[in-house]
Automatic annotation (TrEMBL):
Species this protein is from: Papaver somniferum
Protein name: AAA+ ATPase domain-containing protein
Superkingdom: Eukaryota
GO MF entries: ATP binding; ATP hydrolysis activity
Transmembrane domains' residue ranges: 12-33
Domain AAA+ ATPase: 232-361
Region annotation (Disordered) ranges: 286-307
Residue ranges with Basic and acidic residues bias: 288-297
Entry annotated with the keyword 4Fe-4S: no
Entry-linked PANTHER family: BCS1 AAA-TYPE ATPASE
Biological process annotations from GO: response to stress
SUPFAM superfamilies named in the record: P-loop containing nucleoside triphosphate hydrolases
Cofactor: Mg(2+)
Length: 429
């Protein structure tokens, strides 16, 4: 058995060697042809070969370029982005070679398939081969200082009849990259899987409903915006102390309509032209959020440099750029320091709706009690109602104190825990 195996592998080695020699000869002849035969003849020959092989080739092959090309060469193709989003979770399961990118403040890793990698996918019973090909092309519109542009193209091959396959859209969270070299990716993306919805938000129910109504009216208002001659965009300013639910609100907004979120980090933007490119490369049906930096001193220092973008610069770019497009866009700016903002920056039209996210009220507490403890009423609710009106406590603190700390989830103990915390805050105040 041993001998047979060795014998087999030897003959297999011979076959491979012979095959390798044959391929080598063909490549050699092909290189010679390329050198001595005019280009239009080789093109004609390869077109003929393609046509001949097409008879026996049972697949359809479609390529999607990363960039749209033409004058708008920096604009990422929407089809490419959609496919990348669709393949993201599949790549990490199916591909053998993955590329990892660190995103979102060095906290998350985003995976995608590596160049020249291929994965096989089953879509509604149709077998599809996806591959990521890196092609180097000369783009005549780019100046000679940067003559070469690496384009990536995702191509799909599938058996004929498997055309309708890009569905299952998940929300994506995009973060801008702090790399200013030529050819870098403007936005990195990960699947956005935050579980929060408006139902989870602890706030005055009337206020919550008002915000939902405002959003729904906006999202259905395409014709109306056209009629009144305004671009179809809406700006929200969320302000309030830390831990009052501003970031959670943005997540809930995105979930409400399945909008993508673009998280804009101004410090990573080198200047206004890059900012324009970034905003130009956001999709419609998206929310762009700019959260004010906590480290304010540092931001002020940095924004004094010529190349850095300031908040007013950002708002001006948004005014100019998004006024020219007719697609629905939401811009959300959050801050803990609304009183320090220049009123001109947050005037209506720029920030259409100002929403105060305030300390936790009794109605907010009731949302937490229902979600965390399945309680709609309890004898301790009255004590909590009085205390919560007397102190300034963020919803984040209420949530933390109400969270069960034991497997049994003893509701009484949780409520008492919260009462203790509220009394402590009252004493300290
Ligand atoms: N109004 C709220 N409803 C429900 N949960 C909330 C609310 N506010 C805060 N939380 C809870 O507290 C955590 C922190 O909230 P969030 O990040 O939304 O606050 P924030 O206002 O954005 O704070 P910061 O100003 O520090 O950015 C959330 O993960 C959430 O669990
Ligand atoms: Mg926040």
């Amino acid at each position: 058995m041993d001998i047979k195996l060795r014998k087999m592998s030897k003959s297999m080695g011979d076959i491979l060697m012979g095959f390798g020699t044959l391929i080598g000869s063909i490549m050699f002849v092909y290189t010679m042809i390329q050198q001595f035969v005019p280009e239009y003849v080789t093109r004609y020959l390869s077109a003929c070969i393609c046509r001949i092989t097409a008879f026996a080739y049972p697949y359809i092959e479609i390529s999607f370029d990363e960039f749209t090309g033409g004058g708008d060469w920096l604009k990422v193709s929407k089809a490419y982005t959609a496919i990348e989003a669709y393949l993201g979770p599949k790549s990490s399961k199916l591909a053998k070679r993955l590329k990892a990118r660190i995103v979102k403040g060095n906290k998350d890793l985003a995976f995608s398939m590596d160049d020249d990698e291929e994965i096989v996918d089953d879509f509604a019973g149709v077998k599809i081969w996806w591959s990521l090909d890196k092609t180097t092309t000369f783009d005549a519109q780019i100046s000679s200082a940067a003559p070469r542009d690496d384009h990536r193209a995702i191509s799909k091959s599938c058996h004929q009849g498997g055309e309708n396959m890009i569905e299952n859209r998940h929300i994506r969270l995009y973060s801008n990259n702090a790399n200013h070299e030529y050819g870098y990716k403007l936005w990195s993306q990960v699947a956005f899987e935050h579980p929060v919805t408006f139902d989870h938000l602890a706030m005055d129910p009337a206020k919550k409903q008002e915000i939902i109504d405002d959003l729904v009216t906006f999202s259905m208002g395409r014709d109306y915006y056209l009629k009144i001659g305004k671009p179809w965009k809406r700006g929200y300013l969320l302000y309030g102390p830390p831990g009052t639910g501003k970031s959670s609100m943005i997540a809930a907004m995105a979930k409400l309509f399945n909008y993508d979120i673009y998280d804009l980090e101004l410090r990573a933007v080198s200047g206004n032209s890059e900012l324009k490119q970034l905003l130009h490369n956001t999709s419609n049906k998206s929310i762009t959020k700019k959260e004010e930096d906590k480290d304010k001193d540092k931001e002020d220092e940095e924004s004094n440099g010529d190349s850095k973008v300031t908040l007013s610069g950002l708002l001006n770019v948004i005014d100019g750029l998004w006024s020219a497009c007719s697609k629905e866009r939401i811009f959300v700016f959050t801050t803990n320091y609304v009183e320090e903002l220049d009123p001109a920056l947050i005037r209506r039209g720029r920030m259409d709706k100002h929403i105060e996210m305030s300390y936790c009220c009794f109605e907010g507490f009731k949302v937490f009690a229902k979600i965390y403890l399945d309680l709609e009423s309890h004898e301790l609710f009255d004590t909590i109602r009085h205390l919560i009106h007397e102190v300034k406590v963020s919803p984040a603190d209420v949530a933390e104190n109400l969270m069960p700390k034991t497997i049994e989830r003893d509701s009484q103990a949780c409520l008492q825990n919260l009462i203790k915390a509220l009394e402590k805050i009252k004493e300290d105040e």
